[in-house]
Amino acid sequence: MEIFSIRLEDGPEDRQFVESLDARLVDVIDLHARTREEIAAFQASFTSTAWSEENASGATFLAENEAGHRVGYVHVREGVDDILEEPCGYIALLAVSKNCEGKGVAQALVRRAEEWTAEAGFSRLTLDVFSSNTRALSFYDRQGFRAETVRLVKTLREAR
Could you tell me which residue ranges the N-acetyltransferase domain spans (predicted)? Predict the structure, then answer.
């Protein structure tokens, strides 16, 4: 097993790495009511929220291998539990480099997000995942996450 460490994001090079993994996230999203261009634009916009003023209390953690190469990241921030309407931790983004899939990187990043959530005083950690991302759904299930809602979409007419 490869050895890696987790650290806080630290500037423009780390942000470039995070943004470079957008294509991996886009590749696992297959939505019948959305074009690839719409999905890519959404992902780029959503990733940029990691550094917005409103998410200043969140944190982006990077995983690095022994050689110091970035291999994955998680961005966690305050969210709202939709049922209890109280603050909770929220994994907004998580991605791992393709060559590091299945090596425990994502699991370590989720554990760090859980630690951040507990340190912030929240009792729950939530996330959203696209239904087409079956690998992520299986992974999160193994980490103890369970679905509470499912959003369904029906296209009624073409967008103007």
Answer: 21-160
